[in-house]
């Protein structure tokens, strides 16, 4: 029983580290796209904030704060899920598939019901999700490799 707890604790710690790194870096595709196309680079953050402040009128600043918080919580939550379902030594392809699956749920099921999310350009958002999955997978692989050494 003690070994199971230690393994679960280690897995959760690995997920939080990998998810934290992925949370910081996974927005690069959509942010780059927004800048290159003259769009507002914070629009995706405000869209995420509208998930939290859905039925309340909110100012742009409130949406950014709520969006940043939602992004961190969702990133860490998905990382915990991925730590449990990805292979012990995930490859890049595992991360891409995981990110695409998350994108299908986040953007296709939930996001299409939220006007601000639905209005975002789709390809950059899917790229963010794919990068997120890759970064979580690589982060888990790196940490698990270090732990085994």
Task: Count every helix, treating DSSP H or I runs of 4 or more residues as helices.
Answer: 7
Looking at the structure, what is the overall shape? Answer: elongated
Order of helices and strands: HHHHHHH
From the helix content, strand content and strand pairing, which structural class follows? mainly alpha
In percent terms, what proportion of residues is strand? under 5%
Biggest sheet overview: none
Name the poorly predicted regions. none
Distance between the termini: 24 Å
| Count of beta strands | 0
Global mean pLDDT: 91
Overall helicity: over 70%
Number of domains: 1
Round the Cα radius of gyration to an integer and report it.
Answer: 16 Å
What would your notes on this structure say?
- With 149 residues, this protein is mainly α.
- The chain is 80% helix and 0% strand.
- It has one domain (2-40, 73-148).
- α5 (92-110) packs across α7 (122-148).
- The radius of gyration is 16 Å and the shape is elongated.
- The model has no long low-confidence stretch (mean pLDDT 91).
């Amino acid at each position: 029983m003690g070994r199971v707890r230690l393994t679960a604790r280690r897995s959760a710690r690995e997920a939080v580290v990998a998810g934290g790194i992925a949370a910081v870096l996974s927005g690069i595709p959509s942010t780059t796209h927004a800048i290159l196309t003259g769009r507002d680079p914070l629009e995706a953050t405000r869209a995420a904030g509208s998930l939290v402040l859905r039925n309340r009128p909110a100012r742009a600043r409130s949406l950014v704060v709520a969006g940043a918080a939602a992004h961190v919580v969702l990133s860490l939550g998905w990382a915990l899920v991925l730590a449990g379902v990805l292979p012990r030594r995930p490859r890049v392809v595992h991360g891409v598939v995981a990110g695409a699956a998350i994108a299908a749920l986040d953007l296709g099921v939930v996001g299409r019901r939220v006007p601000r999310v639905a209005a975002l350009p789709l390809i950059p958002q899917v790229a963010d999700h794919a990068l997120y999955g890759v970064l979580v997978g690589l982060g888990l692989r790196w940490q698990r490799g270090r732990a085994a050494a």
